[in-house]
Amino acid sequence: MRTLLTAAMLVFAASAAAAYDPIVLKRGWYRVDSFDNGECAGEVGTNGQFYVISVSGLAHSEPAFLTITNGDMRPIGRAVQADGAGRWQEYYIPFRYNRGEGDLVTVTVTGERCTVPLDFKWRRAKGWDEPAPLRPR
Fold this sequence. Notes:
With 137 residues, the protein is mainly β. It has helices at 2-16, 22-26; strands at residues 30-36, 41-46, 51-56, 63-70, 76-81, 88-92, 104-110, 115-121. The chain has a four-stranded antiparallel sheet, with no helix packed on it. It has a four-stranded antiparallel sheet with strand order 5-4-7-8, with no helix packed on it.
């Protein structure tokens, strides 16, 4: 029984160290930034329009603070909370109303034990690869 518990703890510890969201792997999303300091890890993945921010290595249900900047817009800052496995993730759609084609987005998740800094450049999507199926009458 003790061996089984030890094995389960090792598997859990290994999975908690990987922040990569499974949707990024399964649906062809790609990584635009990652961070790993041995205690905490974080990644940002995208499909070209939506971004997913993932952090792991936080404590069970640990409160943290999220800060997002996007060019010259006013920073977003709010409290977030890790799940029972010490992970947190959220989707983000960069947008700057009437302000050019994109910029550098910085994301910082700060917990009690660690800070995860991430950043990525984005540009406004130009439309779909295929034309819309509807035709004007």
